[in-house]
Amino acid sequence: MANLENVSADDLRETLSKVDDGDAVKRLMAAITFKEIDELSQKGAAELYGFSSSWASKWFQRLERLDEEPFEEVVYGEPRDGKSPELTEQEHEQFIEALHNPPEESGIDAPAWSVPLARYYLREEFNVEYCERHVRRLMSEAGLSWKTARPEYYKSDERAQEAWQEGFKKKRNNLDDEYTVLTIDQTRQVLSTLIYAWFPEGERPSLSVTGKWDSIKLLGAVSDAGETFFLPCEENFNSDTTIRLLDALQTEFGEKICVVLDNASYFTANAVQEFVEDTPIELCYLPRGSPELNPTEECWRKLNQALGNRLFENLDKLQDAALSALDNLEPPQLSAYLCP
Q1: In whole angstroms, how far apart are CA 212 and each of 144, 309, 315?
Q2: In CATH, what number does 158-338 get?
Q3: What is the pLDDT of residues 217-248, one digit of tens each?
Q4: Which burial class, exposed, middle or buried, applies to 252 when counting CB atoms under 10 A from its CB (0-12, 13-18, 19+)?
Q5: φ, ψ of residue 208 in degrees (nearest 5)
């Protein structure tokens, strides 16, 4: 009866990380248990996972070959579902080349590679089925790493922004003097956010943070008279919250308001359009990709500076600190953004 002398528990664990078949997992776990518990017999290890002593004699012998043969042939015994057990050298090179190009070039409708997409490519292109862990390792060995792409925001060109500003000037001039011009925007704040600050050279600073992503949500407005209005929002932003904000702004600034806002779906929703139809509210949507035209964005920048590098115990304390900071900030001038 084989004693698995040619294979270590670490070898077995590494193989375990590559398999995705329930029976194969149990076979390997039985072998690992046998290797790690000195007083346990092969029969005892086999019985722990529902196998017989004759099974142990057969499969432990097979596992001795892990250092000589592809693990799929050892662990699975036969190729599953008619699939080839592993990539050939040429197929492996083709796989690496595919990973270094956008998935679209391999006929996959996606902007970037993921483990499931790579598994799909291997299955469709080479009829090879690997578990996700093994595919992840192949992708790492191919020189890929898990990271976030740099954001490349849609940005309006200067001509579009200038045209919008000229159009807004004309619209503003056609409104009567009772109208208040407002810009609105939204933000989320989490319990801790690290921002750039000054620290002594040669030191590696550390600050307390939390891994929680609990957040407060705020809607804000800045008026052409230099006033501000901020409203905490319990639920996620949607058309209902937009309507409640517009209603609150009318209560605060009067029925006649001209609101400048971006193209977020909860601002452009049909329900919002229907709400303003029978009101004197005027909505002016900024060109897409033009956050620099919205002065309320400057309020959020100042808020981030006030709350950054601080850890708040709970959302109530975060909200109190946020509203206090917003009450004390110097509002930006709308004319500098909308009508320069």
Answers
A1: 28, 15, 11
A2: 3.30.420.10
A3: 999 999 999 999 999 998 888 999 999 999 99
A4: middle
A5: -70, 135
